[in-house]
């Protein structure tokens, strides 16, 4: 095909979610509900960390960054998904698609860095409690969080620039419910082997290294917990670690299933859409509840804020 005569597309058509009988409306209503829960849960954490100085500690600084990421991650595509469903026009402009693609991976890569830092924070707190306060200060945690955002921005910028300049001549139909790199590259013209190799390299370096670091951190944490003399402390620590590991398994498992492949030309994305729902909708909604549901400091901060609010509006 002569790519020099290629007419640049101005919009893409998104096929959307898989159709399950007449349950499409229920499915989109469920996604809207999960999105609201994600906004409320993560928004509450951000507000509480800002207004309550007792929560301005390294662990909660990382959690508030994770909440910002989850809100940004889901907002990148869910509003557009719902608007397309209501308008029955599954289209997205070219520049909007490229922006959606970039911010989706920008927030995604940042999340893996932050999860690694949360694992490091928990490792230091449980395995080296006497040195924790001097090693992991609020200043250090802020610098690590900034490094996570900057590292994500710089690691995927070149890849997105290359994707934006690819020719799209044969089709403008994307087999997904948002602009994901695999379906976008599948309809792209030209030689995409370099961009595939670069994406696969980023996947291995960022995601797999983050997974390895997280697993090793929790193995040390579990070994330390087993040496605790108090059975009650062991049970509480194991309960917290188990809930964290559930999120880790869901997040990394779904991402590895979707993205850990060297080529996209022969890939079928229909089966990956449901897995993508777990990665992009379910996990961001669960994160604030998993990381804080057994956290007494957060509970006390919320109840304190509610009591202040009730006192500010006395009964007539």
Automatic annotation (TrEMBL):
Gene3D superfamilies in the cross-refs: Rhodopsin 7-helix transmembrane proteins (1.20.1070.10)
Residue ranges occupied by any G-protein coupled receptors family 1 profile domain in the UniProt entry: 41-291
Keywords of this entry: Cell membrane, G-protein coupled receptor, Membrane, Olfaction, Receptor, Sensory transduction, Transducer, Transmembrane, Transmembrane helix
Domain of life where this protein originates: Eukaryota
CDD domains: 7tmA_OR6C-like (cd15912)
Transmembrane segments: 26-51, 101-120, 140-158, 200-226, 238-260, 272-291
Subcellular location: Cell membrane
Membrane topology: Multi-pass membrane protein
Record family assignment: Belongs to the G-protein coupled receptor 1 family.
UniProt cross-references to PANTHER family, sorted A to Z: OLFACTORY RECEPTOR, OLFACTORY RECEPTOR 6X1
Name of the featured protein: Olfactory receptor
Organism: Pantherophis guttatus (Corn snake)
Source lineage: Eukaryota, Metazoa, Chordata, Craniata, Vertebrata
């Amino acid at each position: 095909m002569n790519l020099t005569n290629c007419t640049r597309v101005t919009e893409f058509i998104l096929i959307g979610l898989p159709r399950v009988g007449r349950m499409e409306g229920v499915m989109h209503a469920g996604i809207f509900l999960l999105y609201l829960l994600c906004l409320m849960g993560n928004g509450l954490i951000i507000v509480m960390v800002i207004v309550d100085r007792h929560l301005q500690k390294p662990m909660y600084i990382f959690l508030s960054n994770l909440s910002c990421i989850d809100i940004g991650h889901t907002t990148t595509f869910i509003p557009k998904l719902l608007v397309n469903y209501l308008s029955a026009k599954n289209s997205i402009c070219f520049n909007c698609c490229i922006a959606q693609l970039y911010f989706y991976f920008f927030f995604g890569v940042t999340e893996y860095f932050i999860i690694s830092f949360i694992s490091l924070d928990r490792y230091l707190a449980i395995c080296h409690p006497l040195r924790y306060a001097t090693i992991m200060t609020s200043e250090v945690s802020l610098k690590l969080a900034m490094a996570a955002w900057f590292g994500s921005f710089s690691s995927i910028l070149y890849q997105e620039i290359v994707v934006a300049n690819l020719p799209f001549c044969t089709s403008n139909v994307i087999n997904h419910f948002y602009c994901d790199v695999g379906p976008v590259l599948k309809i792209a013209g030209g030689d995409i082997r370099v961009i595939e190799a670069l994406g696969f390299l980023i996947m291995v370096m960022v995601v797999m290294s983050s997974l390895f670091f997280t697993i090793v951190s929790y193995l040390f944490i579990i070994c330390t917990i087993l040496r605790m003399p108090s059975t009650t402390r062991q049970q509480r620590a194991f309960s917290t670690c188990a809930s964290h590991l559930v999120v880790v398994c869901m997040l990394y498992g779904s991402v590895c299933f979707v993205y850990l492949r060297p080529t996209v030309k022969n890939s079928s994305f229909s089966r990956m859409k449901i897995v993508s729902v777990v990665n992009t909708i379910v996990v961001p909604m669960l994160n604030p509840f998993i990381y804080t549901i057994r956290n007494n400091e957060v509970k006390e901060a919320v109840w304190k804020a509610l009591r202040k609010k009730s006192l500010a509006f006395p009964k007539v």
